[in-house]
Amino acid sequence: MAFPAEVLLLILRLVIAPRLMASTKTTFFMSHPQRPPLHSPELFPYSVAAVCKTWDFVASMAPEFWSLVVIFLESTPLDYAKDLLLRSKNLPIEVHILENKPLKEMDPPMSFTPERVAWRKLKMQQLVTAITPHLHRCERLKIQVVDCQLLPRLSDIQAPAPQLTRLALEANPHGRSHIAINKPESQPVLFVPSPDLRELTLDGSDWYPWFQSLLDSGAEFRNLISLTLSNLNLSKPGQSSFDTMDELATTLGSVTRLSVLDLRNIRAEECVSQPDQQVMLQNLEVLYMTDCESEFLWSFFSFMDMPSLVGSSVVRCPVDAMLVPQSPDLHVEGIDALNDLGGFLKDWDGVNLVIKDCPAFDNHTLRTLSGNRYRPPGHENFCSLEIWNSFGFTLEVLQDFVQVRSEVDGGHYKFNSLFVYGAPYNLSSDDLAWFKARLSEFSWKMVYGTSNL
């Protein structure tokens, strides 16, 4: 005999929910370490609701279960999405609108039929309309799709969001996407998030008029600490929200507490100019640059002064066109052999360097990083190197590098950690002993997992 609904609800509230609700909480852009992914069938309360219609009905009677609203663009029926939004009553909510599968598993948008593209666009419009009445209690909103043309414009969201602290409108963040070049129409923007907005992720050319209109109206972004911009075209004034790099730089400079800046697939082919004076990003600690083009990189580093950088990441960028970020931690990934990686790194004065999937990491780069005992001061704090699947150098040059870095007269160079992953061969016992005698931490792992520890 089935449990009465009241008994089942009591069990869910007293036994199941306390164990699972803690792992449902999230830091929004980073999943809780114990929480299943949003696409997982184990995600609470959706795992309970999926048991049967009765369990779904009983779970719907507990508003506190439904603070996390996960809607899949193609598979969640519109009526069910509206019901999910109502289940939490007047409690604060976090809303995710996602593709049916993680983006890295999705087919590219160009493979969709015209009928599917039109249907997806209509469904997104319907979902945006459905969430609008609930924006006043929405603390976190994330819309993540594979095609940037599908994202709603901020002017489409016709309601204030006074409690919103994290907003993400993004397309294909795991790979390069095409540029959204259509200039937004001039429409009044009614979507006004809380002054406590802390994290903002926007795709394409939509963000600037909204952002600038809020600044012009006296809105404050006193707590905005993380900003991600992707698929932005600065090159053609008629097709971009930004006419020049000056506008982007000035806007970034107005966000006084900004500490994390993530720039992906940014172009600036025809708007390069020298600034009258550099823009200070005084509190910026972390900088990510992915798939950005050369003219933008040159212009960005001409405009920006970032004295507080702690960590930087440069992924698939033409490093010949940019200055090396002066941060203690530097991650460099996907740099091809056409780039002079050694020239890029020669002025870096950091502590920890990670090289990943870089054909450009060769003997020349290692020699540049090692220097010699008679060279002027440089790389004085460099103490740790990780090399992942970037084996364009010889073992002899690597040993020369370690010898110089670990035994320079005067003790200025404190290099003591080397990790090599994806090596094409294993080390002999003599070579292994040589490295371990000079380094406090050393690891050498082959492509197929065999390792010298």
Structural features, described:
With 453 residues, the protein is an alpha/beta fold. The chain has a domain at 330-453. It is 27% helix and 20% strand. It contains twelve helices and 17 strands. Strands 1-2-3-4-5-6-7-9-11-12-13-14-15-16-17 form a 15-stranded mixed β-sheet. A two-stranded parallel ribbon has the order 8-10. The longest helix is centred in the N-terminal third of the chain and has 20 residues, at 5-24. The radius of gyration is 26 Å and the shape is globular. The chain starts with a helix and ends with a strand.
List the helices and strands and how they pair.
Blueprint: H1 5-24, H2 46-49, H3 53-59, E1 68-72, H4 78-87, E2 93-98, H5 114-131, E3 138-145, E4 166-171, E5 199-203, H6 207-216, E6 226-233, H7 245-254, E7 260-267, E8 279-280, E9 286-290, H8 294-303, E10 304-305, E11 311-315, E12 329-333, H9 341-345, E13 352-356, H10 363-370, E14 384-388, H11 395-406, E15 417-423, H12 429-438, E16 441-446, E17 451-452
Parallel strand pairs: 1-2, 2-3, 3-4, 4-5, 5-6, 6-7, 7-9, 8-10, 9-11, 11-12, 12-13, 13-14, 14-15, 15-16
Antiparallel strand pairs: 16-17
Helix pairs in contact: 1-3, 4-5, 10-11
